[in-house]
Design a protein that fits this description.
The complex is a heterotrimer of chains A (221), B (193) and C (206).
Chain A (H helix, E strand, L loop, with lengths): L2 H11 L10 H6 L4 H24 L9 H23 L1 H7 L10 H11 L4 H31 L1 E2 L2 E2 L14 H46 L1
Antiparallel strand pairs in A: 1-2
Helix pairs in contact in A: 1-7, 3-4, 3-6, 3-7, 4-5, 4-6, 6-7
Chain B lengths: L1 H13 L10 H7 L3 H30 L8 H23 L1 H7 L2 H4 L4 H12 L4 H29 L11 H15 L9
Helix pairs in contact in B: 1-8, 3-4, 3-7, 3-8, 4-5, 4-7, 7-8, 8-9
Chain C lengths: L1 H47 L8 E8 L7 E7 L5 E13 L2 E10 L4 E8 L13 H4 L28 H23 L14 E3 L1
Antiparallel strand pairs in C: 1-2, 1-6, 2-3, 3-4, 4-5
The chains are: A mainly alpha (221), B mainly alpha (193), C alpha+beta (206).
Chain lengths: 221, 193, 206
């Protein structure tokens, strides 16, 4: 499958969070600052790609009835690795992400892709699927974090943007703000897709008309 | 005793697992379309949550810690949860087949429901003792039920409302959750932690 | 039946491999993790005690209060000749808006505050949380029980409270007051504010 298409699909047309509606929990919880969102994205991306690869690798070996426990153990192992490594070498990130690192193991995106794709497709396809979905997740969480941090804290990556006089819209960094912002993002994305779809339909209609006319003129002339 | 009551109120309302801690949203958005399924899901969650937390608690204190295997915590806990849900499915099929059918895919979905694993992990992280873990798990489950029940009620009415096309379905659902979260924010300061 | 055993066997193999890999990663990361765990307190102390140097020894001691849960943890920072260089108190209060507030307070040997580092707090974001910002914290620098009243101005004291967060400000004052009193009593044998701590029940635990 065309790699670029895979990546574009992961980020936009098949965005795991905004289109497939999976993996909301970490997106909402770890999006108060952009730096945390980036950290989370790396962790999730690593687990996603690593699990996809291994699950795809052993897909012929994996017993069908026992596949769920097998997936769980594999995904869980990579998650534990991320947990241990961040605790050891990136302790402030580990503290910010907290319980959401081990929760990657029940992240519907990771599990969903393992079940829906990696267990049925080859190594390279699974690799790019993991990367595409991971980037889609990253895109969503970082954009959400950017909105929340800029509006709710007046900073971006910790850098003050507006000076001391800025009155932050606190609700943006509080839980309700997370819901509202991503709800608006969802609505926004749907709207864009609806408009794009209508344009596509009109284009197709126009082409059909053209083809019809061509046929008619060929039949006549 | 008072400490336990405070813990209960906190887990149920102030730090509501869905609306404040952001756990369990996938199932939230999916199951909460009708109040009866929501209630059913809520009760199933309470049951699994309490059992899972207690079993994981014992495994942590009895096996993982003494044998220095704490790093296997994530995997062991999630396997326990998966097994529990499997058993619940089998028992429910035999005892209450109608309820089992009503659940459809939601029951196995509880396994990947971040709330269960999240609560089991948090109980350990917060260094609760056995009774505190029990109260924590139970009240969190009740909080989940409350949130999902209210939400389902609102969504049933939304079905009849005229919602702009881009927001139909999940988008308006999440915005509603946001407003609910805002409402629950009023519980802040109700009890001192 | 045979098929089932075969499947379980495969699952078992996967588990064993996973466990082995994890044991390896655990062994590698064990030490760095231990270091991370200890570093938060150490970092806090290094932030709040001005002029601290690597050769200094940090000794922790516990000042026992009426009941076990109110023990105040004090870190003595000693010079190489065991003379006191400074102290670091893990001050706390239960009077915060959201409950317990714990602050690491650096105190020089004349019992003046040299720094504050909030450790634990559940205050309201945007309001009480401003207690972590310099605008609020800096007013305490250089202050001691001799020259400062650790109550909010509303209560007749010297603390400039955070706007719309009087409760939090008051709580911080309480934490600092009690912490400093316990420290001074223990190390100076002189009581400043008898209302803050029940001195009759205090004992030194070195």
């Amino acid at each position: 499958m065309n790699i670029l298409r895979k990546i574009f699909s992961g980020i936009w047309t098949n965005n795991p969070v905004l289109i497939l509606l999976l993996g909301f929990c970490p997106v909402l919880a770890v999006s108060t600052t952009v730096i945390d969102a980036i950290g989370m994205s790396f962790s999730a991306l690593f687990v996603l790609v690593a699990s996809n690869l291994v699950i795809s690798l052993i897909r012929k070996f994996t017993p069908n009835k026992m596949r769920i426990p097998v997936f769980v153990v594999i995904i869980g192992s990579f998650v534990t690795m991320v947990d241990l490594i961040t605790y050891a070498y990136f302790s402030s990130l580990h503290k910010s992400l907290g319980v959401f690192i081990p929760l990657i193991v029940v992240n519907c995106i990771v599990f969903g892709r393992a079940e829906a794709f990696a267990s049925k497709n080859g190594l390279l396809d699974s690799l790019w699927d993991g990367i595409g979905m991971g980037l889609g997740f990253a895109f969503t969480i970082v954009v959400l974090a950017a909105v929340r941090e800029i509006i709710g804290n007046g900073t971006f990556l910790g850098i003050e943007l507006f000076g001391k006089s800025y009155m932050p819209v606190i609700i943006a960094i509080l839980p309700p703000g997370a819901f509202l912002t991503i709800g608006l993002m969802l609505g926004g994305m749907n709207r864009i897709n609806i408009v794009l779809n209508e344009k596509k339909k009109m284009k197709e209609k126009a082409e059909k008309e053209k083809a019809k006319q061509l046929k008619a003129s060929v039949a006549n002339g | 005793m008072v400490k336990l009551i405070i813990l209960a109120i906190d887990s149920m309302l102030i730090s509501n697992i869905i609306l404040m801690k952001f756990l369990g949203i996938c199932a939230y958005v999916g199951v909460s379309k009708k109040q009866d399924t929501a209630t059913g899901m809520g009760f199933a969650v309470i049951f699994v949550m309490v059992m899972a937390t207690l079993i994981s608690f014992f495994i942590q204190k009895g096996i993982l810690e003494p044998l220095n295997l704490v790093y296997l915590q994530t995997i062991v806990f999630i396997l326990v949860i998966a097994a529990l849900v499997q058993m619940l499915e089998v028992t429910m099929k035999k005892i209450a087949p109608a309820l089992f059918d009503a659940f459809g895919i939601y029951l196995p979905l509880i396994t990947t429901n971040c709330t269960i694993l999240g609560v089991a992990l948090l109980a350990i992280q917060k260094n609760f003792d056995f009774i505190e873990a029990l109260v924590f798990a139970f009240s969190t489950g009740i909080g989940y039920l409350i949130a999902i029940y209210i939400f389902a009620g609102i969504r049933e009415r939304l079905e009849w409302s005229d919602i702009p096309k881009p927001f139909k379905g999940a988008a308006i659902g999440i915005i509603t959750a946001g407003l609910l979260s805002l409402a629950f924010f009023g519980f802040n300061g109700l009890v001192k932690l | 039946m045979k098929e089932n055993i075969n499947q379980i066997l495969k699952l078992f193999i996967v588990c064993v491999v996973a466990a082995a890999v994890l044991a390896l990663v655990y062994a590698i990361t064990k030490e760095p993790i231990e270091k991370s765990k200890q570093s938060e307190t150490l970092e806090a102390i290094q932030i709040v005690v001005s002029g601290i140097m690597d050769q200094m020894i940090i000794k922790d001691t516990l000042i026992v209060m009426e009941n076990d849960t109110n023990n105040i943890q004090v870190y003595m920072i000693l010079n190489q000749d065991s003379s006191i260089f400074a102290y670091s108190i893990k001050a706390f209060t239960e009077l915060g808006y959201g409950g317990k507030i714990a602050i690491m307070v650096g105190v020089d040997k004349e019992f003046n505050i040299t720094g504050l580092y909030p450790l634990e707090f559940h205050e309201t974001p945007g309001l009480g949380m401003k207690m972590t910002k310099d605008e609020f914290k800096n007013q305490f620098l250089g202050k001691s029980l001799d020259n400062y009243n650790f109550k909010v101005q509303k209560d007749g004291g010297d603390i400039v409270a955070i706007t719309a967060a009087t409760i939090t400000s008051r709580a911080v004052g309480d934490a600092l007051n009690r912490g400093l009193n316990a420290l001074v009593f223990n190390f100076k044998k002189e009581v400043i504010d008898t209302g803050a701590v029940d001195t009759s029940k205090m004992e030194e635990v070195k």
